Amino acid sequence: MEAFEAVQHYFNMAADELELEDDLRPLLALPEREITVQIPVQMDDDRLVSLIGYRVQHNRARGPMKGGLRYHHEVDLDETRSLASLMTWKTAVVNIPFGGAKGGVAVDSRAISKREKERITRKFVDEVHELIGPDKDIPAPDMGTDHEVMAWFVNQYNKYAGFNPAVVTGKPVEHYGIPGREEATGRGVGILTIKALGRIGRKPAKSTIAIQGFGNVGSHAAKFLSEAECKVVAISDLSGGYYNPNGIDILQAARYSREHGFSLAGYPEAETVTNHQLLELDVTVLIPAALGGVITCENVDRIKAKLIVEAANSPVRPDADKVLTERGIPILPDILANAGGVTVSYFEWAQNRQFYQWNLNRVRGELDHMLSTAFEQVWDLAVERHVSLRTAAFMVGIDRVARAMRLAGQA
């Protein structure tokens, strides 16, 4: 099952529960616009390379479209389409006034220099600047991009449109960014994990956590959860997994990673396991925070966690999702679990439109409030309708978008 097909599978399950009209389904499911652009870039060795970039604008019924920009060699139209649709439901679930979009460039971000990355970014802006903007479509960092890429993006866009920092979010604070944006997704994962533990009758101090992925999202989630007295027993990155049943000192691990080129390779305070073995550890909570599609029909029967929190996008394949649901293992779905980033992006956008700087305490307080409200609505609906948390989250999102379209006379 391809990425977009998998999202449509979940969409249809929720649409059936909502008894959504047949003529409205394609309007909600299919993207409004798909853009493919050629990006000619001169590399540092003077080669002229032609890259392919994408921007999929899925739905704008509830406001300007919002979604990240990723640089990864596996980026393609199907993946971008699926992630754009997930953004539509994600923004609706947390009830922020955005639609959904996603973009990317098919390039290995680890194999290019900083100057090459800057050229790629500016060329991409040249190709799409007429189709984006603070009232149209607002990109943000994603896999392979960061706050510096967003600063280049704004600088290039401003050459066409004049001063307008709200065109992207995830910018450096020095370039009209917002405090707390970098930690937002991981912090949101931590906030919602604690709430979900309470709902399944588990105390944080007696809960063990395994996190696949120790990048920006995984490391901030690990920090939040360890400060909340959870025992983080396993973490991982590209070098492999690291397991200590007595708990890992997350601040020490983060410091080790920074000192070793953002790699945990050789981390001495834990035994080595593979990334696959980490997924199968006997823990209270499993948090896939790296790649999608890591829990499949091939390993689902070996998953022992009591709760799964999807910090990554689509880490559980639909066939595995069905098995885990039948086993009674709750899965906090990606469109809710990792919505902290887009929520704080909304705060940044609002800050830019108002030209009024938010402080970190306000950001954290508003984030906690908005995610908590969304969590309670999804959990209560799941209990009321006897559906999974994923189906309930999609139901909340789809219903809000459908209502917006009906009220605007679009359906």
UniProtKB/TrEMBL annotation:
InterPro entries: Aminoacid_DH-like_N_sf (IPR046346), Glu/Leu/Phe/Val/Trp_DH (IPR006095), Glu/Leu/Phe/Val/Trp_DH_C (IPR006096), Glu/Leu/Phe/Val/Trp_DH_dimer (IPR006097), Glu_DH (IPR014362), NAD(P)-bd_dom_sf (IPR036291), NAD_bind_Glu_DH (IPR033922). Keywords: NAD, Nucleotide-binding, Oxidoreductase. One of its GO terms (biological process) is L-glutamate catabolic process. It holds the Pfam family ELFV_dehydrog_N. NAD(+) binds at T185, N216. Substrate binds at K66, K90, S345. Signal peptide: none annotated. Belongs to the Glu/Leu/Phe/Val dehydrogenases family. This is Glutamate dehydrogenase. It comes from Aeoliella mucimassa. The lineage of its organism: Bacteria, Pseudomonadati, Planctomycetota, Planctomycetia, Pirellulales.
